[in-house]
Amino acid sequence: MFPYIIIILLVVVCSFLDCFNLNEKARVFIIWSLLFILVLFAGTRFETGNDWTEYTKVFKQLPEADTMLSNPALFALFRMEPGYILFNSIVKTFGGTIDTVFFISALFTVFLLFGTFKHYSFFCFLAVLLYMRYGYLQTNTMFVRQGIAISIFFYSLRYIQYRKLVKYVLLVLVATSFHTSAILTLPFYFIIDRQYSSKVVVLLIIISFGLSFIDISKLLAVILPNFIAQHITAYSESEVWGEMGGRFNFGLFEKMIIATLCIIYRDRLNRIPNFNLFFNLFILSIICYFSFFQMYIFQQRLSMLLQIAAIPVLISLVRLVTKRQRIYPVILLSVFIMFFFLNFIHKSSTIYIPYKSWFF
């Protein structure tokens, strides 16, 4: 447990740097150093995380890249997406191991995502703190393929704003080659970068709650492409994957509080550049949670793709207070996220404790 305490305390301490004036060179050095520490922590893990065994098994079974490329039918032998399979094969061709795959994946996922946040001029240290709640463990130690896809998707958002459809579609297809769920973001080009009234937002959430009582998996299997429909069928029919808890849980309660605060302060938040882009993604995570309630894993994976939007949304809320008052929400978020992070590790102790690394 001690390594996890150290890593979260380091992030918490650094998060307060957004409350003070800091030399720009020092700020850049500290933020990139902090991110690299997070990459090392997740990217050099050994027999740690609930995905380690499965990814290791697949890596051992894979032939090298030249064999894969000369016989494309081999891709169909593995349940994982072709982009990720090819990535593993290339690493294997150059003498790398599954440890190399995890390190490169963490490096790519973390730095591409925060390069995107920097593009939108967010409080970077606070963003790292929120990342520990909304994606760090999930995208780097649980859903590595989806973590790569999520980072590519968030990078592609700039092309929605620039109205560059071809570039957006190409990036989404690349993301889809690492995780199939990314294909569902293609229509976002037409609906995300808009300002919807708060009444419309509330109405959509209410409608999605109604859909939570209906199994829409069969309808989706008919209207969506076959390769996506196969995933949906598996997610909805598997007795294990289809298992679901209650409609209301702490995570949903947390999201509803954030959504309510955004609606209350909507007029002021609308003045913040790019707020509606990320607010719409965040609201979609709630809508997807309810709408695909009957398809647990599908619901969770789609929500995971969208929930990182909570980071810029919460930062927008913090920006509403004066610089002098900023320390108070940072303290509140620090306590909450530290509790969540350590509690998650404690509950998942069989896969996270003891922490092992081939580097440390």
Question: Can you put this structure into words, describing what you see?
Answer:
The chain has 360 residues and is mainly alpha-helical. It contains 21 helices and no strands. Helix 1 packs antiparallel against helix 7 and helix 15 runs antiparallel to helix 17.
Structural features:
360 residues; single chain; mainly alpha
- End-to-end Cα distance: 15 Å
Quantity of strands, as a count: 0
Radius of gyration (CA) equals: 20 Å
* Largest sheet: number of strands, sense, barrel closure: none
Which band does the percent of strand residues land in?
under 5%
Element-by-element helix/strand order: HHHHHHHHHHHHHHHHHHHHH
Helix content: 55-70%
Overall pLDDT = 87
> What is the SS-derived class?
mainly alpha
Shape: globular
Ranges where pLDDT stays below 50 over 5 or more residues in a row are 238-245
Total helical elements: 21
Outline of the structure:
Helices cover 70% and strands 0% of the residues.
